[in-house]
Design goal:
By secondary structure, the protein is an alpha+beta fold. The chain is built from eleven helices and six strands. About 60% of the residues lie in helices and about 10% in strands. A hairpin with a 4-residue loop joins β5 and β6.
Length: about 350
């Protein structure tokens, strides 16, 4: 059965980079492949049925994007935790080989699932709060404090949007200086190349993936940029409506009206990314997706063959038996496999 990319459903296959690995998501399955210190690739496969598959109402335009965004944050955090656990196991094994006592908290005892679930929920909540505070609340505060355009909805939101984009660029530029983040960005590039190889039907092997671009129009980096543009337009209209109702706008009013609509901004942005991805080969489409691709030059780096291999293993596992891994596979448990 041919399960290659369907241009009518451009969001069917995607993923993200994790610590020394890649997570890939396909219909019904999430697979995370991580390269261990000894060169072995460990994979965790999880069956996943999205809310959109369970509740038809969630498939409605805009709503599907808002709900899908929250789902991806949860999945992303869980897969990052898995890659971090592998890194900690390798560090512990290295300490034991060198005759060092394990550090506190690395005794190897498995925490309960309820405790892990609580920690994951707390991490997701904290990450969302920090993200909203930095990229949504802070620009409003700066624009209010230093610019006298509070009662001019379009100008105010253009300034706040410019500050928001500036903060994003500064954040990405700073973290890109770190060696560990640079490796993460290489795996990000590997993820894009593997997805492109699948979408174009060129084979899921290292040679085919290496020929692909590391810049993908449906990348989460591009999504963030679209979110910021959509926020300018939506919040300008919202501010104009609120101003007609209340007579004036304050920082408190904007926080009270803007923040609850962030999921709506995400949903609209999802629809825009989905539509533009279908037309990325047209002249207009290329112009529309270009800013996001430029930004990916920061958040992706050219991967080496070993990193491409990891991304391809994750993608094959996510796609299922039609794309089974050709190398030996040893079952480690109900959710994990080890690829030599």
């Amino acid at each position: 059965m041919d399960r290659r990319f369907d241009i009518a459903k451009p969001m069917q296959v995607g993923g993200q980079a994790v610590l020394e690995g890649v997570m890939m998501r396909a219909p019904g399955m999430v697979a995370t492949a991580v390269r261990r210190a000894d060169g072995q690739i460990v994979v965790r496969k999880e069956q996943h049925r999205s809310l959109a598959d369970r509740y038809p109402a969630v498939k409605l335009p805009v709503m599907r994007g808002a709900v899908g965004l929250i789902e991806m944050v949860v999945i992303g955090m869980r897969t990052l935790n898995f890659s971090a656990e592998i890194a900690m196991q390798d560090a512990k094994a290295d300490e034991e080989r060198n005759g060092q006592a394990p550090k506190n908290g690395s005794s190897g005892s498995a925490p309960s699932s309820s405790k892990e679930g609580f920690k994951l929920g707390l991490t997701v909540a904290l990450s969302l709060v920090i993200g909203v505070a930095l990229f949504f609340a802070t620009p409003l505060l700066i624009a209010t404090a230093f610019f006298k355009v509070e009662q001019q909805p379009l100008y105010f939101n253009l300034i706040a949007g410019g500050i928001r984009v500036g903060l994003l660029l500064m954040y990405l530029f700073v973290i890109s200086m770190f060696k560990d983040i640079q490796r993460l960005f290489q795996y990000h590039g590997a993820e894009h190349k593997a997805v492109f190889a699948f979408e174009r039907g060129e084979g899921l092997d290292v040679a085919a993936a290496a020929r692909q671009s590391r810049l993908h129009p449906r990348c989460g980096t591009s999504f963030l940029l679209v979110v910021m543009v959509v926020a300018i337009l939506l919040f300008s209209v919202l501010d104009a409506i609120v101003m007609q109702w209340l007579g004036e706008l304050t920082l408190f009013t904007r926080l009270l009206t803007h923040l609850p609509l962030i999921p709506l901004v995400g949903g609209i942005s999802y629809e825009f990314i989905k539509a533009s991805a279908k037309r990325s080969d047209t002249v207009i489409g290329k112009v529309v997706v270009a800013p996001g691709l430029w930004l990916q030059k920061i958040t992706t780096k050219e991967p080496d063959e070993t990193q491409l291999e990891v991304a391809l293993v994750a993608l094959r596992c996510a796609l299922g038996e039609d794309y089974a891994i050709q190398s030996p596979v040893e079952l480690l448990g109900s959710e994990q496999v080890s690829v030599n």
